[in-house]
Design a protein that fits this description.
It contains eleven helices and eleven strands. It is an alpha+beta fold. It has four domains: 44 residues, SH3 type barrels (Roll); 63 residues; 72 residues, Arc Repressor Mutant, subunit A; 126 residues, Nucleotidyltransferase, domain 5 (2-Layer Sandwich), CATH 3.30.420. The longest helix has 18 residues. It starts with 9 loop residues before the first strand and ends in a 14-residue tail after the last strand.
Length: 352
Amino acid sequence: MERRMTAGVVVEHAGTRWRIKRPLGADAVLLRNDAGEIVSASPSTLRFPPDLPGRPAARRVDDLRYTDAEWAEAAKRRAVLVDLAGVPSRSRDDVDRAARDLGIKRRRAFELLRLARSGCGVEAFLPVQVATRAKRLDKTVETIITQAIQTHYAQPKRPSMQSLHREVAGLCQRAGLTAPSIHTIGARVRASDQAWLIRKRHGPQAARAGRLLTGSHPGARAPRQRVQIDSTPCDILLVTAGDRRVIGRPNVTFAIDMFSRAVLGFSVSLEAASTLTVATCLAHACLPKDEWLARRDLPRVRWPVWGKPDILEYDQGPENEARGIQRGLRRYGIEAKIRPKGHPEQHGTSNG
């Protein structure tokens, strides 16, 4: 198994299919599923799924040849067509509607529908890459165009394509080379990493807004199957009772059950989020609330929500990844799951 722990290998973990993102050492490996979720797991818990009878052979793909947007689009296609494959009375109009939504032709939709029925993974829904025509420009000219895009075009002042063409023409003239046309330079710009280009020219918010968002949070099928924990400062200021002097802004940590969206537990502190606030919140979430309510003279209030979560989701804050918190999760059999970085739409459920 050690020899097969390489990036891109499909494995089964906790009854679902994952793809190895990268090994973290001898005792852990980072996994990613079709929805973009990332978890760490022990290699001993992984299983290499055998080829199922009747299933087409898995497509061999190079992860590095596809962008994140292409992987997200493939996941969207698979999700839509798997749902459609589960409709027994689907019609040609249903397939046409799905094809329009996905921006593909009807024939391609039927091909992908057959793959969805056979249970293929998301790699089968990636666009087929065809061999591109070899570039005919001199290598030095190609280097000049690439450098001009990086140093001149990819700037917050957002130079125009005409400005980029003049920059490339000037550099080529000084090098004694024939300058390419503006159409050729435009093709090189379009072939660049668009997410990186938008981030450089328009900022990180525009890059995030332009990113393809597909699917939704996986949610949960039972109470406490997935619990999300998060901290946030409150929109209030506490003051002293006497002179009304500002004490500070409290921070609250919530544990939210993803099945019922009920508050499983919380912790409030004037200190910043730390291992203490996380541990206090988890203890409050796991224990019954009757005694806690009685101490606050709330005997008539019912809060029948408590118990150990199966999966605890959190961001990459140091208070969540602390050694003590991770040791406690392992001790009580709680699976730790890091919410995917760069996906704010999956973060802050407790703040919403």
